[in-house]
Design brief:
This protein is mainly beta and about 170 residues long. The protein has two domains: about 1-85, Glycoprotein, Type 4 Pilin; about 100-170, Beta Barrel (OB fold (Dihydrolipoamide Acetyltransferase, E2P)). About 5% of the residues lie in helices and about 60% in strands. The chain has one helix spanning about 85-95; strands spanning about 1-5, 10-20, 25-30, 35-45, 50-55, 55-65, 70-75, 75-85, 105, 110-115, 125, 130-135, 140-145, 150-155, 160, 165-170. The strands form three sheets. It has an eight-stranded antiparallel beta barrel with strand order 1-2-3-4-5-6-7-8. It has a four-stranded antiparallel beta sheet with strand order 9-16-14-11, with no helix packed on it. A four-stranded antiparallel beta sheet has the order 13-12-10-15, with no helix packed on it. The radius of gyration is 18 Å and the shape is elongated.
């Protein structure tokens, strides 16, 4: 599975992970350049903090949700990023193509609802985080596909959802 990491500047990296006999390898594409690095890791706080060990160096990262994306805290710097896998990238493309007809937000994956940031009647803007689904130990913010008013929120924190389940409905406008 490839992951697309987009920085606030618009710069993008494509990351793919591979398990080998020598450990976990991250392949990072930057345009025509490909950089591969073997590393080990330790989860310091489930879904939030990670320690990466690359060679003889140890690096602590904190990952938190931020306006439909994430912010990475590393060595005192806060870097806003958007991280999506191949499936979500296609889903976003389709949502953008059918932008004006999106009246529902459905789960793109199975998982547990860990946070709900909105309620029925709230007015939201495109890209605003509506809720967060945890799947495969990763927290995935679900963003509003368009501006509008919410008719209903169909899930609560702690609920388990399957791919395709209805999460949020927009009011007819």
């Amino acid at each position: 599975m490839r992951y697309f990491v987009t920085f606030a500047s618009g710069e993008e990296r494509v990351v793919r992970f591979e398990t080998t006999a020598t450990g976990l390898v991250a392949h990072v594409e930057n345009g025509d350049e490909l950089r591969s690095m073997t590393f080990d890791y330790a989860i310091l706080e489930q879904g939030k903090a990670l320690n990466l060990i690359v060679g003889d160096e140890s690096h602590d990262f904190y990952l938190g949700p931020r306006n439909g994306g994430y912010e990475v805290h590393y060595r005192g710097a806060v870097v806003p990023v958007d991280i999506v896998d191949e499936r979500e990238r296609v889903a976003r493309s389709l949502r953008n193509h059918f932008h004006s007809s999106v009246d529902e937000v459905r789960a793109s994956m199975s998982g547990a609802i860990v946070e709900v940031s909105v309620a029925a009647g709230d007015v939201v803007t495109e890209g605003q985080t509506l809720l967060v689904i945890e799947a495969m130990k990763m927290q995935n913010p679900i963003a509003a596909p368009r501006d509008g008013s919410l008719a209903s929120v169909h899930v609560a924190a702690g609920d388990t959802v399957a791919a395709g389940d209805l999460l949020v409905s927009f009011s007819a406008e």
